[in-house]
Design a protein that fits this description.
The protein is α/β, with parallel strands linked by helices. The chain folds into 6 domains: 139 residues, no CATH class; 187 residues, 3-Layer(aba) Sandwich (Rossmann fold), CATH 3.40.50; 75 residues, Orthogonal Bundle (Helicase, Ruva Protein, domain 3), CATH 1.10.8; 78 residues, Arc Repressor Mutant, subunit A, CATH 1.10.10; 168 residues, Leucine-rich repeat, LRR (right-handed beta-alpha superhelix) (Alpha-Beta Horseshoe); 125 residues, Leucine-rich repeat, LRR (right-handed beta-alpha superhelix). It has 25 helices and 24 strands. The strands form 4 sheets. Strands 9-10-11-13-15-17-18-19-20-21-22-23-24 form a 13-stranded parallel beta sheet, with helices on both faces. Strands 2-3-4-1-5 form a 5-stranded parallel beta sheet, sandwiched between helices. A 3-stranded antiparallel beta sheet has the order 6-8-7.
Length: 838
């Protein structure tokens, strides 16, 4: 070549590019382009020596420029590069000329300025990508020209045999999309993803997160990463998968856009799959990375079809869904406050992200409203670009008055709504997502509470099977996070016990927004939020017409004084009251809710809420499920047991005081209560004897009540009881002798009842018992001989120590299976400490 190692371009090229390119010949463009590239290469060499901060990126840029040399001095090759629209050529020359200043700025950026380092690194990466893109046709000429002239009829194997003759093996353009101008907050995720991807046993890795979280950007970063490129070289194939993409379409795109084979029509998916596998195998020992971007749930089988048993072949998937069956999953989290602020400021304030005219507190409030979603920050930041403080303030004011962030941001709405629209064939799952809008933001949502509403509103199964199925489906689509608190929960004890859901605030707002598209009076779900005593105008003006909602949620804050206006809602079947105040009076209008089936009253304040006017609910003749959470109970709770059609009562985290002790059940007014749930009522010492009169009771759950010392002696009178859960009642010392009469009992859980040291002698009279959970019963030294009568007992779940006690009776109980669970010593120790010092 004409150049030397020290001076890659000829000396006679003019040092300054042509400034006036309006009326010049094609030769003049060649001279100008050579000149600016020479200047750029010199700048790269200079900065590589001066700074270590960007040395890796500068070396990559230097390598790209040296690869371009063959184009600049090849016979007529530069002319072919410039055989494109004049405007594009001129813009590119000016772009490269200005890029020199970007390179020279490297050494002037301080090490401590993390934000500027991020921005500048992205500019260098973009410069490298633009150079490769502009010269791509000629750089690939030796390979692509010959490939384009071949068809699949000539055999893909022939194509590969031509290409692999090159020194260094197979090398084909990967056409990985370029990176955004600025990337914030993904550096750590990139390193974690690389570590996961490069594990030898990981053949498929899925980056999963809701829409707009930066999955695609992270995948592009990985493809452009120097370490990844060093491992996979040019064998990085990037394909964007649409919702309706078939396998053969994906393969055809791979051949056309990556392997440069135009004539590649396949008749079937199987034919496409076989040809691709054959092609990849003929690459020999080289590593291959296939990136499938934006894969939807209906395309999960496509991933399976592309999993070939080829050494060094890896698939990276990005999706808003979880694909746990096809490999490992990397769940991408949202941006922290610092990174979120950096991204918003970069978009809103183009001058180095510095905001002079907008107060800092307003910027902070706007960042908080975007909830850490990169897409929300990008869209909102761009909409506020170069806007004055008035625009920022009015935007915040609208949102505080109840306007949604989605009202003025179609891009954000369409991105997130797409995941909900994908549930069109799963209407129950979609309804479940919308129902989640009834709970406050940043709070755990009990799966059991959600089940109560859905069972009655949608006539679902009484055990909640469909509810948990829908929650799992929504979790797999990243529309919520499902936390299974008790992984050993069985079907017998209910699908939702102790499980809970969390949801990102922006997704909750999406659920509310989608539920609020009709006029207030016509909405199926009505969500009302009251701040202070600021009742919505449509409600307080006295002209309120009856509303058609079947599902009503009312949320109030700690300053609400329980001043209510009348509300006409004759169709409401489920009512959720979210409370934060220390005192709360039930709204009088609920007396008229004749169709109400589910009432959920939950306090989210620091202390249990004193609930007043509870007897109002005694008029709710159709009420079937009542849930009180974090409520300070009073003797007026007696009125609950007068509800003839109430089937389930849940008391969660309630302060019971002496309220339950005086509760009675009038035998002349038989209750239809089927399920009683008392959980984490920390001051409950004694279960009222009145519950023994609940003749129809089938499920009794008293869990995590650490002060409970005894159960009613007449417990055995609950002849219909099938499930008894006493988990983690650490001070409970014994089971009543009358338990022997519970012949209908199928499931018994006394796990972590640390103080129980013996079982009743007639324990074996529980002839219907099938499942017994008793791990953590360390005080138990022996079993009564009567256990030999438990002929239907199928499963005993216990720790290793207790398993030895049961091993003596295995020969008598032929169907018995002893399941040993790992003993959590630390958890047990903490429970013992709590028991001693509470």
């Amino acid at each position: 070549m004409a150049n030397s190692a020290t001076e890659p371009f000829p000396r006679d090229i003019q040092k300054n590019p042509l400034r006036n390119l309006e009326m010049v010949t094609k030769n003049a463009y060649e001279v100008a382009l050579q000149a600016v590239l020479l200047e750029l290469l010199k700048a790269v060499a200079s900065e590589t020596k001066r700074t270590a901060k960007f040395r890796t990126l500068l070396k990559r840029l230097d390598k790209t420029l040296r690869n371009i040399e063959q184009v600049l001095y090849g016979n007529g090759r530069l002319a072919r590069v410039l055989d494109r629209p004049e405007k594009e050529t001129k813009l590119f020359i000016f772009y490269v000329e200005n890029a020199k200043e970007v390179v020279l700025k490297c050494s002037r950026i301080k090490c401590w300025n993390v934000y500027k380092k991020f921005v500048h690194a992205n500019k260098l990466i973009r410069l490298d990508n633009e150079l490769l893109r502009f010269f791509q046709v000629e750089l690939q000429d030796n390979v692509s020209t010959r490939l384009r002239n071949l068809s699949l009829e000539d055999g893909v194997g022939q194509v590969l045999s031509i290409v692999t003759k090159r020194a260094g093996g197979f090398s084909i353009s990967s056409s990985v999309p370029g990176l955004p101008d600025v990337i914030v907050g993904l550096d750590f995720h990139l390193e974690e993803l690389k570590r996961m991807l490069l594990k030898e046993d990981n053949k498929v890795v899925t980056v999963s997160a809701p829409g707009g979280c930066g999955k695609t950007t992270l995948a592009k970063m990985l493809c452009h990463d120097s370490e990844i490129k060093g491992i996979f070289g040019d064998n990085i194939f990037y394909v964007t998968v649409s919702r309706t993409t078939s396998l053969k379409t994906v393969v055809q795109n791979l051949f056309r856009h990556h392997l440069h084979v135009n004539k590649c029509e396949f008749q079937t998916d199987e034919e496409a799959k076989n040809e691709l596998q054959k092609t990849l195998r003929q690459m020999g020992s080289q590593k291959i990375l296939l990136v499938l971007d934006d894969v939807w749930s209906e395309s999960e089988s496509l991933i399976e079809d592309l999993k070939f048993p080829i050494p060094g072949y890896t698939i990276l998937v990005t999706s808003r869904f979880l694909f746990s069956r096809v490999g490992s999953t990397y769940e991408l989290s949202l941006l922290n406050d610092e990174d979120a602020r950096t991204l918003l400021c970069h978009l809103a304030f183009p001058c180095d992200g510095i905001h002079i005219n907008v107060p800092d507190d307003i910027v902070s409030k706007m960042v908080k409203c975007c909830k850490g979603f990169p897409l929300a920050l990008t869209v909102i930041g761009a909409s506020l670009r170069n806007q004055d403080v008035l625009k920022w303030s009015t935007t915040l004011q609208k949102w505080s008055e109840g306007h949604s962030i989605f009202d003025s941001n179609d891009q954000l709405l369409l991105s997130l709504q797409a995941s909900v629209d994908a549930l069109k064939d799963l209407p129950l799952a979609r309804d479940c997502f919308l129902d989640l809008g009834s709970f406050p933001e940043d709070e755990k949502i009990s799966a059991s509470a959600l089940m109560d509403m859905r069972v009655e509103l949608h006539n679902l199964d009484k055990e909640g099977m469909y509810t948990i199925e829908n929650l799992v489906e929504l979790s797999s689509r990243n529309l919520l996070s499902l936390v299974l608190a008790r992984k050993d929960a069985s079907e017998l004890e209910g699908y939702c016990n102790e499980h809970y859901v969390t949801q990102h605030d922006l997704l909750r707002e999406l659920a509310i927004y989608l539920s609020s598209q009709e006029p207030i009076g016509k909405r199926k779900r009505l969500f009302i939020e009251i701040h202070g005593n600021d009742i919505p105008a449509w409600w307080s003006e006295g002209t309120q017409q009856p509303i058609d909602a079947r599902f009503l949620s009312i949320s109030t804050d700690e300053t609400f004084s329980s001043v209510w206006y009348d509300l006409k809602a004759p169709e409401v079947q489920a009512l959720v009251l979210n409370i934060r105040s220390k005192r709360y009076t039930l709204p009088p209008f609920i007396e008229k809710f004749n169709e109400l089936k589910v009432l959920n009253i939950t306090s989210y304040g620091i202390y249990p809420t004193e609930l007043h006017e509870l007897p109002l609910i005694s008029s709710l003749s159709n009420l079937r499920r009542l849930r009180l959470e974090h409520i300070s109970l009073s003797p007026s709770i007696q009125s609950i047991f007068e509800l003839k059609n109430l089937q389930k009562l849940s008391l969660i985290l309630c302060e019971s005081g002496n309220a339950l002790e005086s509760c009675t059940v009038d035998p002349s007014m038989p209750s239809n209560l089927i399920e009683l749930e008392i959980e984490s009522c920390y001051d409950l010492k004694e279960v009222p004897a009145g519950i023994c009169s609940l003749a129809h009771l089938e499920k009794l759950s008293i869990t995590n009540c650490h002060e409970l010392e005894a159960l009613p002696k007449g417990l055995g009178s609950l002849s219909n009881l099938e499930i008894l859960r006493l988990h983690s009642c650490t001070r409970l010392t014994e089971l009543p002798e009358s338990i022997e009469y519970l012949h209908s009992l199928i499931f018994l859980d006394i796990s972590d009842c640390l103080s129980i040291n013996s079982l009743p002698d007639q324990f074996g009279e529980l002839i219907g018992l099938r499942v017994l959970k008793m791990s953590g019963c360390h005080g138990l030294e022996e079993l009564p001989d009567s256990v030999t009568k438990l002929t239907l007992l199928e499963n005993v779940i216990c720790d290793e120590e207790t398993s030895y006690l049961w091993s003596y009776y295995e020969s008598d109980l032929c169907d018995l299976k002893i399941n040993v669970v790992e003993d959590d010593r630390l958890a047990n120790f903490m429970k013992i400490v709590g028991k001693l010092f509470e």
